[in-house]
Amino acid sequence: MVCNLRRRSFVSRPPEPILGLPTEPTQARRFGKTRTAQSSAIAEDYAELIADLLASVGEARPTDIARRLGVSHATAIKTVARLKREGLATSRPYRGVFLTEAGEALAARVKARHRLVVDLLRAVGVPAEAAEQDAEGIEHHVSDVTLAAFEAYLQR
Fold first, then answer.
1. With 0-12 CB in 10 A as exposed, 13-18 as middle and 19+ as buried, what is 100?
2. CATH architecture of the domain with residue range 41-154
3. Backbone φ, ψ for residue 143 (5° rounding)
C-alpha cells in the first residue's frame, strides 16, 4: 500500500518484483508442489517397503515396517490406516498389511523411479551407497519431465 498524503488515502499497488526471485504465483506453485510431494512421499515409502517385505518374507507387519523406517509403532499403524483410507492397503487381524492393486501399482512406479534415479547417479560417478541414500529423497520430488530426461541420458 502507498499513502497519498494530499488525499490522506491509501492506494493498493501490486508488489514490485524482487530481483532474483520468481514471481509470487510461481514460487507458491513450486512450494505447493513440494509440500504435496512430501505428503505423498510417506505413502510411497510405505507402499514400496510393504511390497518389498511381502516379496521377501511373505508378510508386512506394522512392527517390521516401523523398525525398517525408523519410526514408532504408533506412527506405522497411523500411516497404514491412512494407506487403507486411500485404498492402497488392506490388513487382516494377525496377518499384517497387504497392498491393493492400486498400492501394488504405486509401489511398482516408486521402485522404477528409484532405480532410474540410482542408475543416473551411478552413471555420473556417485558411489553406490550414496546413490541409494540420495535416491530416497530425489525419487519423490522429481517430475516426470526430469525422469524422462534421466532416462534419455542413460540410453545415450
1. middle
2. Orthogonal Bundle (1.10)
3. -80, 165
Q: Where are the alpha helices (DSSP H) in 1-156?
A: 24-57, 62-69, 73-85, 101-123, 128-138, 144-154
- pLDDT tens digits for 131-156? 999 999 899 888 899 999 999 999 98
67 neighbors 123 (Cβ within 8 angstroms)? no
Residue 20 Rama label (left phi>0; alpha psi -120 to 50; beta): left
Pick from 154, 65, 64: nearest CA to 112 = 154
Cα angle 76, 78, 83; round to 5: 90
Q: Is the pTM of this model over 0.90?
A: no
Distance CA 61, CA 65 (A): 6
pLDDT in tens, 23-56: 888 877 777 766 666 668 999 999 999 999 999 9
Question: Which sequence spans correspond to the domains of the chain?
Answer: 41-154
The dihedral region occupied by 70, where left means phi > 0, alpha psi between -120 and 50, and beta the remainder, is left
- Here the cell at position 43 is 505413502
Separation CA 123–CA 94 (nearest Å) = 44
Residue 141's SS3 state is coil
